[in-house]
Design a protein that fits this description.
The chain is α+β, with helices and mostly antiparallel strands. The protein is 48% helix and 21% strand. A 5-stranded antiparallel sheet has the order 2-1-5-4-3. Strands 7-9-10-12-11 form a 5-stranded mixed sheet. Bound molecules: adenosine-5'-diphosphate (ADP).
Length: 371
């Protein structure tokens, strides 16, 4: 096999279609793959304008683009892969990705076009899009359900609670001991259910308010520490707070995010020693990364994911109060701000909760809201 035959064999065996055109867009050479992709024989393509491979409705535009390109074949355009509609001999269309390379010969310019059939890639993308849309719809449906259910359950529950209190007042000590005990159980279960429903309602409302402002995280943390003064005094908690950034976000949601994480850092403290809590932030190109570190009881690594699920608690109500919604709420808030939340921890030594707040997404939401 001589050198030319070797080149030709390599050219023909390429997985992508290769088309070489002159500077008028006339086809000079095609490889085998072009024949199988488009259903034309090599003979039928040679000397034809490249537009033969493009749906008719794009011909006019394509000629303009081609002329422009040939006048100034920029490196940028050359490197950029483009997705286009292609047309087979039988008129059927399919998606291709093309890349163009101009080659300056001594006396003229030729252009090599590499064509890749991306039908399967497009189909996969379409399927993902449909799945995403379905998931989004289901999510919205669930959120609506959680909102309506928790909202509507409040009223009858309030009635039950009122009547239990009334019943207690009127009949306490008049019935036998068991009846008093049962009533106490009913009262505490009703109270617990009211807390759960209140939290579920708050949870389902996260994201309703799309407003975004410049939020100074230093001020937020300061306000929370003031709000938690009783718990801080009782526990002897000490704070190390690094300078925090001003981020674009929803003020109310970000406040409850910090509030959840800081109050957990106090609540889940070690029995020995004072709670030491550090709060810091690092600015990255696309996001801010915050960390809240405590020297508390820590979390086993097998629970790192579970703690962010709604109503999941690792301890009984008697050990630590709470409904197990704080971290699920935090996750939802962070996700609404285009970020992620996770924990790293060592049992008995403490935990660090990390979360990120996206820059661009929140800026865009802010712009949409102010326009
Ligand atoms: P709650 O505090 O109401 O139980 P959360 O959703 O805030 O609910 O937390 C879920 C679980 O994660 C808690 O029950 C606790 O076991 C664990 N947890 C949260 N924060 C910490 C922390 N800073 N240190 C250790 N465990 C924690």
């Amino acid at each position: 096999m001589n050198e030319l035959e070797t080149y030709k064999a390599a050219f023909d065996s390429a997985q992508d279609g290769i088309i070489i055109c002159n500077h008028h867009g006339k086809i000079l050479l095609v490889n085998r793959r072009v024949e199988t992709l488009f259903g034309y024989s090599e003979k039928e393509l040679i000397a034809q304008p490249i537009e033969i491979l493009i749906p008719r409705r794009f011909h006019h535009h394509h000629v303009d683009v081609r002329d422009h390109y040939l006048k100034q074949p920029s490196l940028k355009e050359m490197e950029t892969r483009k997705e286009l509609n292609a047309c087979r001999k039988d008129g059927s269309e399919f998606f291709v990705e093309i890349s163009l390379s101009p080659i300056q010969l001594k006396d003229r310019m030729i252009v090599t076009t590499v064509v890749r059939d991306i039908t399967q890639k497009k189909e996969a993308e379409r399927k993902i899009e449909v799945q995403n849309k379905l998931l989004l719809d289901q999510n919205q449906e669930l959120e609506r359900f959680a909102y309506i259910a928790s909202h509507d359950l409040q009223e009858p529950l309030r009635t039950v609670s009122n009547y239990v209190t009334l019943f207690n007042k009127k009949y306490e000590g008049q019935l036998d001991k068991n009846a008093d005990l049962y009533l106490e159980y009913i009262s505490s279960a009703t109270l617990q259910m009211q807390l759960l429903i209140r939290d579920l309602l708050t949870y389902s409302k996260i994201g309703f308010d799309k407003s975004r402002n410049d939020v100074d995280c230093n001020l937020i943390v300061k306000a929370i520490i003031a709000d938690l003064n009783k718990a801080i005094a009782e526990s002897g908690a000490e704070f190390m707070i690094a300078p925090l950034p001003v981020v674009i976000g929803n003020m109310v949601e970000l406040k409850s995010l910090f509030q959840n994480l800081i109050s957990n850092a106090i609540k889940y403290r070690n029995k020995i020693g004072n709670p030491l809590i550090s709060i810091a932030a690092v600015e990255h190109k696309n996001e801010y990364l915050f960390s809240i570190t405590d020297n508390g009881i820590g979390i086993e690594s097998k629970f790192y994911e579970r703690i962010f699920i709604i109503f999941q608690k690792l301890h009984g109500q008697k050990e630590y109060d709470g409904t197990g919604i704080g971290l699920a709420q935090s996750k939802k808030i962070v996700e609404h701000h285009g970020g992620k939340i996770w924990v790293e921890s060592e049992v008995g030594k403490g935990s660090t909760f990390y979360f990120t707040i996206a820059k661009e997404l929140n800026k865009q939401i802010k712009e949409i809201n102010t326009n």
